[in-house]
Amino acid sequence: MDVKWKIKRFEALSVFELYNIMQLRSEVFVVEQNCVYQDVDGKDEKALHLIAEDQGITVAYCRLFKPNEYFTEASIGRVIVKASHRDQKLGHILMKEAIEVVKVEFNETKITISAQLYLKKFYESHGFIQTSETYLEDDIPHIEMKRS
Fold first, then answer.
1. pLDDT for position 147
2. Three-state SS at 142
3. What pLDDT does residue 98 have?
4. What is the mean pLDDT of each run of 10 residues along the chain (148 residues)?
5. Which residues contact 72 (CB under 8 A, 6 or more apart)?
6. What three-state secondary structure class fits 39?
7. Given this model, what pLDDT does residue 36 score?
8. Which residues contact 10 (CB under 8 A, 6 or more apart)?
9. Phi then psi for 33, rounded to 5 degrees?
10. What gap in Å lies between CA 42 and CA 98, rounded to an integer?
11. 8, 83, 134, 147: which could form a disulfide with 12 (CB 3.0–4.6 Å)?
12. Closest C-alpha among 106, 110, 76 to residue 91
């Protein structure tokens, strides 16, 4: 595995990169999780996009927001790892990279996320704590979590 990391603003994404991101998000969030929802939500244009590519294929991804663009604090969302690469701890590397990018690019350490409930322990391992009751987002149980 030869993963290359990229951080890009929306307008800097190539058509190929954007297509790969949207393909991966659809593959996991729509097909794998059997969830029909509006993924194209008008927020991609505001986000920084953290992309991991292995031989030109997007294998991990998330989007990062400055404070007040999604939540009051900075935020990380659409955290995703391609099924074929999940046994390689890419999710943990992705979160470490994302937290560092938020620190460097936004000069922020406080981060809020809307996490799928089943990933609570994963996010806790990165310093996040649950700050809300469970709620449904697109019929999937979620919780708000914060890191400070």
1. 98
2. strand
3. 98
4. 93 97 94 85 95 95 97 97 93 97 97 97 98 94 97
5. 112
6. coil
7. 82
8. 44, 45, 46, 47, 49
9. -90, 5
10. 21
11. 8
12. 76
Which SS3 state, helix, strand or coil, does residue 59 take? strand
Q: What backbone torsions phi and psi does residue 123 show, to the nearest 5 degrees? A: -70, -35
Which residue, among 74, 56, 143, has the nearest Cα to 112 in the 3D structure?
Answer: 74
Q: Report d(CA 87, CA 20) in Å as an integer.
A: 21
Query: What's the CA gap between 126 and 124, in Å, rounded?
Result: 5
Q: What is the DSSP string of 68-132?
A: TSSSSSEEEEEEEE-GGGGGGTHHHHHHHHHHHHHHHHH----EEEEEEGGGHHHHHTTT-EE-S
Beta bridge partners of residue 75, listed in sequence order: 65, 112
In this structure, the strands spanning 129-130 and 135-137 are unpaired
Phi, psi of 19 (to 5 degrees): -60, -45
Output the pTM of the full model: 0.94
Query: Do the Cβ atoms of 65 and 105 come closer than 8 Å?
Result: no
Q: Is 56 exposed, middle or buried (0-12, 13-18, 19+ CB in 10 A)?
A: exposed
Q: How far is CA 11 from CA 48, 51, 98, in A?
A: 10, 14, 19
Residue whose structure tokens are 């991991």: 52
Residue 6 identity:
K
